[in-house]
Amino acid sequence: MEFQHFLHQHKLRFMEVSKENDTLTCLGCMDIIHGPSYICEACDDNFVFHKSCTKMPPQFQKDTFHPHPLRFNVAGLFVCDACRKLTINLINYRCMYCDLKLDFKCVMSIFNDENEIAKRDEDAHQRTTIHHFCHPHQLTRCMLSLTIWKNELLKKLKIKCRACKQMLQGTLSYIYVCIPCKFVIHESCMTEMPMHVQRSSFHPHHVLLPRIIRQDRDASRHVRCYGCSKKVIGIGFYCNECDVNLHVSCAKYPTRAIKHTCHPHTLLQLGKSIIHNLSCDACGIDCDDSCFSCKKCDFNIHPGCIPLPTSFTHKRHLHQLVLVSSVVEDDTGDYYCDMCETERNPELQVYYCGECNYVAHIDCVLSEVRHPKLK
């Protein structure tokens, strides 16, 4: 049995998929193909629909939901006005006379008279938009709930949160977006963003203020982060006196400084999330997971190349402490040094007692340890 879809030039062949095929995704609802479906065998790009999705017409009107006709549209990234989710769809529907946009699943629910969509109050369709100092345009609040396929597409589009620089994940969470600029920021990152940063680890002497940074096509004019050396796009923090720019996450990066005989200045302890194209000045090998760094001199050294005691008994703890790459006690996201009782960065090396689950910053331990290779 063959079927001609209005979006495709070739006829589609009917097939029954008894098990979910994770290599095929319906171009309508974007779910994994399962059950009665249609596929184009003439194309190599897996043009495939669930049978139920092919029943959607190119245009229709449902007065109980919206007074104007809705027409199919081919587009990528947008915010659905029904479910309020950031959506990546090949097919969506738009009002022919106003700015209403709907994803394919919501349109199917409307078309099939499913009450949870069609009978919503008018207030439920109102967009929540705000102005925030992190971006010059209005930001729209929406939910993020993505399939594995959509996650992969977001990676290809290189869409990350402009504050924490993390890829958007498929878990249900709230974000703010500016679609024309492809500017995305987690709601939590935006609400927790300070109006200024004092005593940043990378620039402690001056107050840093927020700065909107537009992308420049000229590579020679790209703004580089003083902390990680990567491009700063969208929003950053800036010291006007020193002409220093930092990503939001780098400006607030939690780290510690130590003094060591290998270098005349204090060294910042850096983890893998902030290391970018750094090589060790002692052995010449790339620093991938951790290093000690002096930004003033562009000096970097592996923890293994710096003479640190690997284990010893400390006067403030009964058992032996061992130098380990990192310690994550649980998934709460709150990690503390048991010696100074302040927050610590879980990606940095620490001294650790496995018997007591006792964790201490390196600089907290070294400030009280006498070692022949340490000042």
From TrEMBL:
Top-rank taxon: Eukaryota
Keywords: Metal-binding, Repeat, Zinc, Zinc-finger
A Pfam family that the UniProt record links to this protein: C1_2
InterPro entries: C1-like_sf, DC1, PKC_DAG/PE, Znf_PHD
Metal-binding keyword on record: yes
Keyword match Cell inner membrane: no
Gene3D superfamilies hit by this protein: 3.30.60.20
Coiled coil ranges: none
Domain named Phorbol-ester/DAG-type: residues: 205-262
UniProt name for this protein: Phorbol-ester/DAG-type domain-containing protein
Source organism per UniProt: Hibiscus sabdariffa
